[in-house]
Structure formats: structure tokens, C-alpha cells
Amino acid sequence: MKKVLFVMMLCIMCSINSFAQQPEQKNGTYRVYCELVGTGKLFSSKVIVSLDFGQKSSFWTGNKGTLVDDNGKPLDFNSMVDAMNFMGRLDWKFVQAYVVTTSNQNVYRWLLYKDVKNDEDIHQGFKVNGDK
């Protein structure tokens, strides 16, 4: 009896797991994720924010995901909520947030998603360091 119950529970768990892994497709869109990474600005209460799309990074090239203005100067935000409001206006949705403390500095990490029709829609509305 215990074996039958175990097999039934295993089948249920496998079916739930396979359902959760199906890609969401609606109106020809697909979901992309990014991580909003905020660090405190030195001698300021403001936050400098970068975006992590899972791109390859290198110690030698620096952080290419920092949000910048049209002149290439890093944007600073009053808080992570200010940065999220900026991204929210660009149709990014909040998923989860957590904080990592490194060398006595808090690094705020917020996971976001957006449904897009093509890869060009991902960067619509903002510039990051390294964009041409």
C-alpha cells in the first residue's frame, strides 16, 4: 500500500513539475527576465542601478549593465522603489527582491520580467553602459 501511494505521489509531482516548465505564449510574446541590481552611491543616499540579463561579464570590461542617460552618465535613483517605478513605466513587472551584503555594503537585487515579441523590445526605453 505504501508503494502504491508513493508511486501516485511521484506521478502527481512529475505532472506538476512538467506543467510549470511550459513556456508562456500569448499573442506571440515570450517572457524575459532581468535583475535590477542597486548599490549605494558613495557619500550619498542615492542608488546606482544596473541591469543583469544574464549577459557575459568580465572583470576587465567593467559593469556594462549600468543604467545611463543620453550622455553616458550613470543614472542615480532616490531608492530601489524609484528605480522600480522607472522600470514599471517600461512595462517591467516585479517578481522578487532580496539583499546581499558584501564588504559591509548592501546590494539590492530585484527580479523583474517582461513579455516581449522580439529581442529588440527588451531594451526599449532605457540605455545601459556599453550601448552604442
- Could you give a short account of the major beta sheet? 5 strands, antiparallel
Q: Give the total of domains.
A: 1
Strand % is 25-35%
Mean pLDDT over the full residue set: 79
Structural Rg: 19 Å
Order of helices and strands: HEEEEHEEE
Number of strands: 7
Number of helices, where a helix is a run of at least 4 consecutive DSSP H or I residues: 2
Based on the model shown, name its key terms.
132 residues, alpha+beta, globular
Describe this structure in words.
- This protein has 132 residues and is an alpha+beta fold.
- It has one domain (27-128).
- It is 21% helix and 34% strand.
- It has 2 helices and 7 strands.
- The strands form 2 sheets. A 5-stranded antiparallel sheet has the order 4-2-1-6-5. It has a two-stranded antiparallel ribbon with strand order 3-7.
- Strand 1 and strand 2 (47-52) form a beta hairpin.
- The longest helix has 19 residues, at 2-20.
